[in-house]
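Example (one chain per record):
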Amino acid sequence: MGKRNVGKAAMKALQIQSPRHVEIIETPAPRIERADQVLIRIRATSICNSHEWKTYTDHYRTHFKAEYPCRPGYPGHEGCGEIVDVGDDVHDLSAGDQVFLTSHAGELHKEYVVCSAGWAFRVDPPAALGDVAPLELFACAVGLLSTGKHVAGCRCAVIGVGPGGLAVVQVLRALGAGEIIAIDLVDSRLDLALGLGAHRIIRASDSAEIDAAIKAGIETAIDCSGTHDGFRLIFRAARREAILFGYNDQPFETVQADWFIKQLVIRTGNIIEQETGRRTAELLRQGLIRPSALVTHRVPFTAAGYSEAMELIEQRVCGKILMLHDAE
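Predicted structure:
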């Protein structure tokens, strides 16, 4: 097995050495060791605005605290590449196939990765890197929403339409939501949400309009802001199901009456299963989602490029950022 393994002993990988300090280091090149594995050359990674920035700046306080220096390639968990080699038991992937990857494939800010073939999702026909590298975010949204009972044909509200919220808006539209209401403080994000499938937008500061929307009835509300205000709003707004897509590791208080009397279902669930990944690739093939619409910046696979991406995220002047290994 592994007839075309990487023909060199070392490869480049990104490593966060300490808070706000990153380097490109050399690490052993991976090789196929099991018959069910594939070797992938990474073409681009899509940077997670939340997890990666919090790791880089040491902003996690209670959970997921980083240990420095971080593992080579960490915290990259959204990316795409092309198959270089396959193990003897792999028959549905071939050298040259374009695939998207998730955290199940390991740490992705590297030149090459080896993973189980089941966690490399083929994109057919091949698409632009901007549409493929961010697909893990969309797969999280697909897994989050497709397991619920109150999406198709229902009125849904999305609180916070940064990259995660914009992915959720697109997936809600693909899953047949009856009405999608986008709520945010930033007008440019709201305008983009309209272009990507939202039927109605509300500024988060417009409490009267929010109250009117709640009175009219919202079956499912999804928080994508990761803020305590967002959490409280979905509990108050949703009649049947409140979904937390945003993450916040600090404790907060809420009013029990906002969820207890309604027998509200409160859940999360962005853990990706293999079928979810395949379904996401199919949504892209059908043209039902446009990940590249979220991409605002591209940086090179260098220490300076990654630091630039972290600065853009900190300044809140970007959507998704691609880190490119070579020209598209």
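Caption: The radius of gyration is 20 Å.
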